[in-house]
Amino acid sequence: MKSLKKQTLVLGLSAALIATAGYAASHAAKSSNKAVAARHAQMQMIGYHTGVLGAIAKGEAEFDAATVKAAAGNLHALAKMDGSTLWLEGTAQGEVDGSRAKAEIWTDAAGFAAKFADLEKASMDMMNAGDAAAVGAGMGGIGGACKACHETYRGPKN
Amino acid sequence: MKSLKKQTLVLGLSAALIATAGYAASHAAKSSNKAVAARHAQMQMIGYHTGVLGAIAKGEAEFDAATVKAAAGNLHALAKMDGSTLWLEGTAQGEVDGSRAKAEIWTDAAGFAAKFADLEKASMDMMNAGDAAAVGAGMGGIGGACKACHETYRGPKN
């Protein structure tokens, strides 16, 4: 009788532990999905501001120094963001739905950070572009940073 | 005959002008939609980082000084962003699909900017929170800034 009670207790505890682990896993999965969504929002804003500058470079929108400064400044802030809240371990492509993050982001963290630093520099350089031609010249650095990072650290479409 | 030619020319020019206006309008509509999407991405990132801090405040996630600093720092950068590329005139609720921006954003631009400044200050204050209780205390300022802005400048659900 005593042994049966003990066994029941052990079973009960195991069930509680499994439930806790299940809760923790589901909590982690939720955090992972949210981190991936936030990264996508960051990329959306980077793409948007690059597009604002690109339209000026292509003559589709009028050159305006304040707009260039604002768009480049926002790009700079986005590039400079602390990635530790966004690029959580366990959120690579295949680990979380919708993620295209390659494992190299974590195995080569310094290289990955360097790409964001390139975008940081290129957007800083763009801030004081004085005319549409200067915006066009600066687009090389910005587009180049985007492309280089995507080539190395972004996986194929899901 | 000459008069007919002239008439044809005038008609042709009018058509070209209408086409140009149409292109400009469609270009502007595209820009408006993109600006609204970028604003939503900004709000998504603000919500995400507020959630990271909120989970620590509620004890759902462990307190970690580096995470708090990163999340609060990113919030600060998001609050500080130059809104001139995002809150374009003509992108209020009813003017662009999906927008919930009230007209007051433009008629009371200083008041609107002050709300972002409140979030900027609250997130700066949060950066050096030393434990979960301090994060909890700081959440009041962050949540309060979000709420105050939404109450005054965000329209009902679409």
Which fold name corresponds to the CATH topology of chain A?
A: Four Helix Bundle (Hemerythrin (Met), subunit A)
CATH superfamily of chain A: Cytochrome c/b562
**What is the radius of gyration of chain A?**
23 Å
Multimerization state: homodimer
What structural class do helix, strand and pairing data of chain A support? mainly alpha
Q: Low-confidence parts of chain A, pLDDT < 50 over ≥5 residues?
A: none
Q: Which two chains touch over the largest interface?
A: A-B, 32 and 32 residues
Chain-averaged pLDDT of chain A: 90
Task: Write the CATH architecture name of chain A.
Answer: Up-down Bundle
Number of helices of chain A: 5
Taken in chain order, the helices and strands of chain A follow as: HHHHH
How would you sum up the major sheet of chain A? none
Beta-strand percent range of chain A: under 5%
Q: Domains counted in the coordinates of chain A: how many?
A: 1
The N- and C-terminal alpha carbons of chain A lie at a distance of: 57 Å
Helix fraction bin of chain A? over 70%
Shape of chain A: elongated
Binding site for heme c (chains A, B): 146, 149-150
Pfam families (chains A, B): Cytochrom_C_2
GO molecular function (chains A, B): electron transfer activity; heme binding; iron ion binding
Protein name (chains A, B): Cytochrome C554
What does this protein structure show overall?
2 copies of one chain form a homodimer. With 158 residues, chain A is an all-alpha fold. Chain A has one domain (34-153): Up-down Bundle (Four Helix Bundle (Hemerythrin (Met), subunit A)), CATH 1.20.120.10. The first copy, chain A, is built from 5 helices and no strands. The first copy, chain A, has helices spanning 2-57, 65-80, 104-107, 109-126, 132-153. Chain A starts with a helix and ends in a 5-residue tail after the last helix. The relative contact order of chain A is 0.13. At the A-B interface, helix 1 and helix 2 of A face helix 1 and helix 2 of B.
